[in-house]
Amino acid sequence: MADLASLQDILGIAFEDLSLLEQSLVHRSYLNENPDFHLTSNERLEFLGDSLLGFVIAEKLYEECYDLSEGWLTKLRASLVRGETLARLASSLGLGDHLYLGHGEEASGGRQRKSTLAGLFEAVLGAVLLDKGFPVARDLVLRLFDTEIQNVIGGKVAADYKSRLQEIVQARHQVTPVYRTTKEVGPDHAKEFSVEVLVGDCVIGSGRGGSKRKAEVEAARDALEGLAQEQ
After folding, report:
1. Are 203 and 197 in contact (CB under 8 A)?
2. 88 φ, ψ (degrees, to nearest 5)
3. pLDDT higher than 80, residue 68
4. Which of 81, 92, 93, 212 has the fewest beta carbons closer than 10 A?
5. Which residue numbers are catalytic?
């Protein structure tokens, strides 16, 4: 039997209907070997949790990344809700330890299988949604994904500044922006680079960083902010 009390402590949520939490832990392989078990598999809860997760992440990205297009928001959401991420979060919570598995699935490594863990994670979210309602379920998703979301927003969005700037400049001027290093200061192990980004002979942004790449990203970000203000 799963340790439902321990699992509730891990999630930080006290269930009203413990059967929902228990059902989220039932893999169909267990039912194949235990057809008289009193609960069905977690697959319907997995479906519900998948829908919840997609919406909550989309809403968060919409709020935080107000300057990104639909295409970029879709890419960021996909990078957050992919199976590898869900499996990693499930492992960090120890969800697999509570999973009801058939002996054959257990013997073949099912408790550590990424697809199984990802589905389990979604099923648990679905159970929380049904038992505690949307606000609690939403808060849980945001709490569990906080680091992942910040890494995506702070890292991938920043890395895409140059791509977005190139798209805008090419659409408006039919040319590609050019990055020019204007200064290098400091010793080799701690250099700081200054970079300008130009459209033709016009400087549209500047930035500094510990590498040329970082300085170019900052210059692109500065240019995008300037273009946004012009709009």
Report:
1. yes
2. -65, -40
3. no
4. 92
5. 50, 122
